[in-house]
Design brief:
Helix content: 40-55%
Structural class: alpha/beta
CATH superfamily of the largest domain: TPP-binding domain
CATH class of the largest domain: Alpha Beta
Oligomer: single chain
Strand order of the largest sheet: 3-2-1-7-8-9
Largest sheet: 6 strands, parallel
Shape: elongated
Order of helices and strands: HEHHHHHHEHEEEHEHEHEEH
Radius of gyration: 19 Å
Distance between the termini: 16 Å
Number of helices: 12
Bound molecules: zinc ion
Number of domains: 3
Length: 244
């Protein structure tokens, strides 16, 4: 472990355009379960058998909005969650002028809460919500205050939809372009808290053209061979020891 931290420190010292690519494992250390485990709990409670992908699909949102919002509000929103050591270390790395972008699959906004500025949210954010009819914007608190299970716009009555990319929905083009740019210009890529099996994560990594990849994940991934350094440990522990 300590040798790995030293090696990570050296890599950070010797690179100046670092990009971090993160997944659910970054937020589980803030006690936010990934949606796959959350869906298990939800099914148990309802005595149903929806797959995790079904629960967060566009079809499900359209056909069963009540069940969608029950799951969404109960299992995907953690209003009181706080940034952990990983978020804080990455914000510091950006402050130091080393980190150019954070690319995240998480929707919880914890990187911004920790102070990070250039955060590319591939899957959107729970903090932005828009009326599907008139487009009125609601932040998280406003959306939750609309009452009832399905949030209806207080102007036109339309359903207010979280700005979260559901299965069957396309990623935002602007974010995709920025992600590809950030990756193709980076000299060091740190990947953390993701097993890289879920589309589109693995596909994006191929745009990275720099010389070193660091993988920090509790379990092994299919990208381990491509990495200069693999650390199978807590992302919060590793990043805070190397950066803070
Ligand atoms: Zn409206």
């Amino acid at each position: 472990m300590n040798n790995n931290i030293e090696r990570l420190k050296e890599l950070i010292d010797s690179h100046h355009n670092i990009v971090f690519f993160g997944g659910a494992g970054v937020s589980t250390e803030s006690n936010i379960p990934d949606f796959r485990s959350a869906s298990g709990l939800f099914n148990e409670k309802l005595n149903r058998n929806f797959t995790p992908e079904q629960l967060v699909s566009h079809t499900f949102f359209m056909r069963y909005p009540e069940e969608f919002f029950k799951f969404y509000k109960d299992k995907l929103i953690y209003e009181d969650a706080n940034p952990n050591k990983a978020h804080i270390a990455l914000a510091k790395l950006e402050d130091m002028g080393k980190l150019n972008a954070i690319i995240t699959q998480n929707i919880d906004g914890l990187h911004q809460k920790a102070g990070s500025k250039n955060v590319l949210e591939l899957h959107g954010s729970i903090h932005r919500n828009y009326c599907t009819k008139c487009g009125k914007f609601y932040d998280l608190e406003d959306m939750l205050n609309l009452g009832n299970i399905i949030p209806h716009c207080d102007v036109c009555g339309g359903i207010v939809k979280p700005d979260v990319v559901l299965y069957e929905e396309a990623l935002d083009n602007g974010i995709v372009n920025e992600t590809v740019n950030a990756l193709s210009n980076a000299d060091l890529l740190i990947i953390g808290g993701t097993s890289l099996v879920v589309y589109p994560a693995a596909g994006f990594i191929d745009y990275f053209d720099g010389n070193s990849i660091v993988l920090i994940n509790k379990s092994t991934t299919s990208y381990d061979q491509k990495a200069s350094l693999v650390i199978n440990d807590s992302i919060g522990d590793v990043l805070s020891k190397a950066i803070l």
